[in-house]
Amino acid sequence: MVKSQLAEYFPILLLALVAIGFAFGTLIMSAVVGRLANRSRRTGHSNRLKDIAYECGMLPIGDGGTRMSVKFYLVAMLFILFDIEVVFLYPWAVVYRSLLLKPETANLIFGSMVSFMAILFVGYVYALKKGAFDWRS
Predict the structure, then answer these.
(1) For residue 36, how many other CB atoms are within 10 A of its CB?
(2) Burial class (CB in 10 A: 0-12, 13-18, 19+), 124
(3) Which residues contact 113 (CB under 8 A, 6 or more apart)?
(4) Beta bridge partners of 34
(5) To 5 degrees, how large is the angle CA 58–CA 62–CA 66?
(6) Can you say whether residue 68 is alpha, beta or left, with left for phi > 0 and alpha for psi between -120 and 50 degrees?
(7) CA distance 95 to 113
(8) Which residues have CB under 8 Å from 52's CB, separation 6+?
(9) How far apart are CA 15 and CA 52, in angstroms?
């Protein structure tokens, strides 16, 4: 019995070993490729055009670290917030009908989702009043 329970942890151990091996393997390969690249620079087989950063076929023009508006990050965080809402809402909607078959939990299940939606609605109204969705300002 003990042997069979320990044997069930073998895939987890194997996955951990593969993950650790992948992490160290990429670090080692990065160092090896970096040394090879430095060797070609020292011998003169490199030029300025080969050393510029490649970005989707476009030549890099301007500063690479341009500042983004705080509004951009605010909208991104609000998107994540409402995306997480859907992550919690979808599984609830899938099992809601089967949960209604138990009359002792039906009101609790519905009430918990209504309270969850109410809290999110208050947050949405607050963001709307603060002008978080107004791109012009």
Answers:
(1) 10
(2) middle
(3) 89, 92
(4) none
(5) 110
(6) beta
(7) 12
(8) 59, 60
(9) 38
Tell whether the torsion through CA atoms of 97, 100, 105 and 110 is positive or negative: positive
Which string of DSSP letters, residue by residue, matches the chain? -HHHHHHTTHHHHHHHHHHHHHHHHHHHHHHHHHHHHHHHHHTT---HHHHSPPBTTB---S-SSPPPPHHHHHHHHHHHHHHHHHHHHHHHHHHHHHHHTSHHHHHHHHHHHHHHHHHHHHHHHHHHHTTTT-S--
Of the candidates 124, 118, 60, 120, which has an alpha carbon nearest to the alpha carbon of residue 87? 120
Digit-by-digit pLDDT tens for the chain (137 residues) are 556 788 889 999 999 999 999 999 999 999 898 888 776 666 666 667 666 666 676 766 777 677 777 778 888 888 888 888 888 888 888 888 888 787 787 888 888 889 988 998 998 898 889 888 777 76
